[in-house]
Amino acid sequence: MKYTVVTSFPISHWETYGERFLKSFIEFWPKDINLLCYCDGYPLPDDAPQADNIQYFDLLDNEDLIMFKERNKQFDGNGGPKAPYNFYMDAVKFSHKVYAQSMAYKKIKELKSDWMMWLDADSVTYEPITHDLLDKIHDDQDQVPDIIFLGRKNAYATCSSFISYNLNDVVEVFMDDFISFYNTDEVLRLQCFADNYVFDRLRLLHERHGLITRNLTFECEDLDAFDMSPFGNYIVHLKGNKKYLQTGASINFKASRYIDLCSMVKHYERKNILEIGTWNGDTACAMIHSAFEVNDTVHYTGIDLFEEASEHTDKEEFNVKRHYTKRSVELKLIDLAKEYEKKGKTFTYYLMKGNSKEKLKILKDDSLCNLYNIKPDFVFIDGGHSTETVRSDYEMCKDIPVIVMDDYYTEDDKGNLPSPEFMGVNAIYEETGGTLRVGQQRRLVISAGDKVSGGGLVNLAVILNEPDLSNPPDTRKVPVQVQPRDCVPPDNIQDNVRENLELFSSMVERCHWHDGKIVLASAGPSLIENIEDIRKLQDEGAKVVCVKHSHNLLIENGIIPWGCVILDPRPFDGVSTHGIIRKDLLNKPHPDIKYFIASMTNIEVTKHLVDKGATVIGWHAFTNALMEMDELKDTQLITGGTCSAMRSIGITHTLGFREFHIFGMDCSYDGIPEDLDERDMYGKKKWLKIGILNEKTKTEDIFYTTGELLALAQDFESLLKRDDQVDMDLYVYGRGVVPSIFKSSNYECWPNIETVIGTCNDG
Predict the structure, then answer these.
(1) pTM for this one?
(2) Confidence class for position 488, pLDDT limits 50, 70, 90
């Protein structure tokens, strides 16, 4: 069969990965396999590799791509000046890859090739690729597939680093649909703009109509599809930020204990690392990056069986993972050395292939240790799992200042443990002193909580041999930041604004400050518990303002709000984040309630309220979409946050209120959610477990929340930090994240109104 390989990359990433990809292709791929390389930007460097089987094309010659980028330049993954980049929402970035595939498909059909193989350019080939290998991958077996891909069970979408397309009429229809998602901007209607998400949507649709596909990695549970594919022993895919080799954080470990591991390397300022069980080299790279955060010189020594491993050694050491070649790891370390050399730092390494029982004897030979710079101040033991091997590894390393052993097992919440044969580390750790201080040693187990297939939790056992070493840092306590974005495209928001302005009879206007009180009733679980407090404040003259989710509850309990703030551009007949149809929340508007509707709100909401005879007052929310509208250039835009609850503060402050009593702004689940382990489309957990530390009482409150609720809490926290700019008195009631933040803050009372009157005396 005849194959053609296709890739693309921006010229700006030539040194980062483009050059490496091309040089390794020339060295290890058959000379009769053509490579079509679509470059985003020209010219190519003068020393760009040249070969008879490589053709370069300027991707920016594609007018459809240029037009797509121009139309949708705002969809570049940036949610605003203060929002960090969101990889999944960068339609501009992913469009290059799709347009390159479309251009190449048409070109390759002219070349009479049988298959077009897409291969990401951030990959490096290190072993010869043969026709036999490719034929086995594309072998017809029962039937010839139309598309071959790398599936992932628990990830949000297929791994698109490799896709092979049969150049037949069926796939041509698929490819036409693929590119039409971008030419028609249909991609912007999806929840995710990544090319693999679009690919999966189309693949599943076309499979129902006869498309034949083959998943090469149907057993892959997570993100390691490429490594598990037939290419895993021939090509290194430096996925994501790994290609940049910048910081330890660039390696995204699924297991929490590896974050702990790297944290310890940095915390103890280690610079001569020994690892027993190098495997694919990812852990090595992460530890090295962490070491360079506090050192200018780092040395790494790695021991592994590599390709010498066999079924016999796997059985003997209770190994269930696949094996990598020494060369594949060495390539990663070579690149590391080059990167740190550019930064003026020095990285050296020594890899040993063989059994650790033999190879660790080098530690007893000072002359060899000096020759290879093996003077470890940190050892990570993660090799064979048998008790005999763990004992041998520990005995040879027991004098190293910091010893970390992987695979220390504890019971999970159901009392399960792995089989005893896998618990060699447990046996040796307990045998040599357990969790007690032994002489000058200090011993502890870092409970990472990583789950084990079949039951149990896997952790790190740590032994500190120097008495002045402090305990390892607690990596569980890290700040959680949520970066919200508009839930519908800007064009939809702007259309809502224009239509709503036709329906609004009046708009919110700035008022002079006064002594009126506002009760803000959000919809958290604690709201119902404080109904009587709200009623008392209302009886005393306070104005009650609600949101749509608290609207009906207040009315049912005899409290008619003065106002209801609405801010939601999503479909009116859709289901809210609380699992309620949005229309049902406002099905019976009350004639005595003023409905403050943001101009960006879905037009069907406004029409519904107007048709029901409700009092409707408009206002403009400060968002990027509204800032881009010329007709609103000199219009008052009200800030406050990501949701109607926080915007309510901004609206009523604009109306002159300066005293605020906040109820039901819990921003957390009441207790432990039943669906605690549920994940979203991106493979991320629905529920976040967070802790709020009260510096006054030195206690910590634990809550379960969602990204959306946490975004609200962050908005509130930002408000608290503006104590020198905001003129208001604030009172927070109930329980949950926001009340806990409020209690733990230094807030007592913001400046008297008179001291900041200049900010609001113009109306």
Answers:
(1) 0.46
(2) low
